[in-house]
Amino acid sequence: MTFANQVKNTLLQDISDMAQMPWLFSKHPDTDFSRKRKLNFQSLIHFFICMEAGTIRHELLKYFAYASGTLSNSAFHQQRNKLLPETFPFLFRMFNDHYPFFLYKKKYQLLACDGSSFTFTRNPKDQDSYFAPNGKTTNGYNQVHVVALFDLLSKRYCDTIVQPIRKKNEFQALADMIDRYYIPDAVPIFIADRGFHSLNVFAHAIEHHAYFLIRAKDVNMRRLLGNNLPEEESFDVQINRILTRSQSKKKRLHPELEDQYRFICQDVTFDYIEHGSEKEYPISLRILRFKISDDGYENIITNLPTEDFSAEEIKELYRLRWNLETSFRELKHTIGAVNFHSKKREYIEMEVWARLILYNFCSIITGHVVIVQKNRKHIYQVNYTVAYNACHYFLRLHNREESPNIESLIEQNILPIRPDRKYARQHRFRVPVSFTYRFS
After folding, report:
1. pLDDT digit string (tens) for 101-119?
2. What pTM value is reported for the model?
């Protein structure tokens, strides 16, 4: 049995195990999924993960091989409505647990965190995710914001929080994922871009014996840590701060360290000092500032020890964070996470989790394939678009169709790595495609 077949059988077995106890994932445990139907619990979950860009009608017809007895759209909606929101996150974690993650220096797990917004068909009733007509669109639209943890070495998603765009809070999302994340025998390093710098995030990582490496702008770094930072253009220093919610200097426990105190107002979240408390929270941070171009500098806030991680190594770790940006592109456009099949946010979130499961399935298979480097001008890598589409097709097969040799197909479709090529990042707004004009 090939590795791809093993991975597929593992995922299908997880779905089958869940199907043995459907009441745990049903809104009405006594009645839901109790009758025999063509789209039962197991096939419903499999269908959800395998859906592509077509309408529900097209997707059902493809899934059931255009059989005359293909169930109606209404029957699918009724079955989908029975599922609890926790169904796909449960399957996501259960499937992920079968495959160990690669560790950096055999000890550290590199976890990148970032957020991305997903646009779906307008639903003015959902005010938490709705944008009224503006310069981008004349009809209005809805969005959810996905904050994800991504393993940079294994190239798999590890955790996700889906928020309605109007209640977007990346600080809290990262803090929550730090609190609940645990892998035995591994020390996590949370790597994030600007937008995640927060004393509360730093404290959550420290309290859970984890490390962090977060980029910050000059203005935000000085706002967080004060103005008494080195004046040099480049530096690597350790600083100590004492956080407090009291402005009374008389009540300070260390008045001789006045320049280290930072006041946190009641409007700023910090979970380790209650409002009105005189408690103090000492925190030690390592601040790096280094040159990246003739007139450009980057700032990194971390708690990685100097003796184990040099400044050059920290630069390289932060550079690896770009793999998460690439994964969002693949998730949206190769895996198809921009093609939703509902207007209700509850079902949109289900589809996001289903796409994350599909992404991890494709990544596990693709990562197992070794590309033999021949005597060529460039080093070659997998063509991820072809590889992920092939894995997606492979997972869809369920009617005893002949399976392709996925590993061989991935080995044959490769692309050269050209490290000196650079492209300007394009920020484009994508209007959701109407259900009426979708096709298979």
Report:
1. 999 999 999 999 999 999 9
2. 0.92
